[in-house]
Specification:
- The protein is α/β, with parallel strands linked by helices and 260 residues long.
- The chain has one domain (42-257): Rossmann fold (3-Layer(aba) Sandwich), CATH 3.40.50.
- It contains eight helices and nine strands.
- The strands form three sheets. The chain has a four-stranded parallel β-sheet with strand order 4-3-5-6, with helices on both faces. Strands 7-8-9 form a three-stranded mixed β-sheet, with no helix packed on it. A two-stranded antiparallel sheet has the order 1-2.
- Helix 2 (76-92) packs across helix 3.
- The radius of gyration is 18 Å and the shape is globular.
Length: 260
């Protein structure tokens, strides 16, 4: 992923060498009759890593950009604060459980803030590549029934739905309290969708299949409206093996890439 750090695994020292990702250790089953069930939500897995490794680096942006005066790496504590402030902003804008939020941002640390923030607010994020043509972004937003697009001022004016313009909202976000948000406040459950990813296609609308991942426990169907995209399929991963490394892999491989 050019210009963006890989999420740094807990325990990795802050050194210049490439990050080595450790294998994911199996997690004991919660219930014998449901060996793949997990009751954590994705942002709760991140929260558990934060509690163990508060001051360690969580994300690091690679490459020097002399025009960028913002931080190029964040600890778990810093990323958590940013994500929670973002989540509170989303909730103030009316985002609630199950709402789909398109994330259209350049590759940056803001992507990770936005992903976690949407999940903390109870929503489902829909990542799209910053370089997609506007027609494709509009189609994905409409097809996924998104209620908000998170983007930057460069593209905000062309969006067909309401926007949260990150580079214009930084001051307001910094002023918010980074108070934790519990499930009881959002009503979120492990059966809710965590994300919808539209895979690469050409120019035809039928070439946009999408993948959906529940936030926690594996299931066969999900309550609530399904996205209407052609070729929709539900991802059914072996969530018994989901752990702190799953969040890193999710971000590194798919979430910030717009599904490519």
């Amino acid at each position: 992923m050019d210009q963006v750090s890989e999420a740094v695994l807990a325990g990795t020292q802050e050194v210049a060498e490439p990050t080595v990702f450790a294998p994911i250790a199996p997690t004991p089953a919660l219930r014998e009759e449901e060996p793949y069930a997990r009751d954590e939500l994705l942002h709760e897995i991140f929260e558990a890593s934060y509690l163990r490794h508060t001051a360690r680096c969580a994300v690091r942006q690679l490459g020097d950009n002399p025009e960028n005066s913002r931080k190029t790496q964040l600890t778990y504590a810093e990323l958590r604060r940013r994500a929670l402030r973002f989540a509170h902003q989303l909730r103030a804008m009316g985002i609630k459980r199950g709402d789909r939020v398109v994330i259209c941002l350049p590759r940056s640390l803001d992507q990770y803030m936005a992903i976690l923030g949407v999940l903390w607010a109870g929503g489902c994020y829909v990542p799209v590549d910053w370089t997609y043509p506007q027609e494709r972004i509009d189609y994905i937003a409409q097809d996924s029934e998104a209620v908000l697009v998170v983007t930057q001022s460069e593209r905000a004016g062309a969006m067909a739905v309401n926007t949260l313009v990150v580079d214009e909202a930084l001051g307001d976000l910094a002023a918010l309290d980074a108070v934790g948000i519990e499930r009881a406040e959002t009503g979120a459950t492990p059966q809710d969708l965590a994300y919808i990813i539209y895979t690469s296609g050409t120019t035809g609308r039928n070439d946009f299949p999408c993948q959906c991942l529940p936030s926690g426990a594996q299931r066969k169907r999900h309550s609530g409206p399904e996205p209407r995209g052609q070729g929709v399929r539900r991802v059914q991963p072996c969530l018994r093996h989901v752990g702190r490394n799953h969040v890193e892999r999710l971000f590194r491989r798919r979430a910030a890439s717009g599904g490519r």
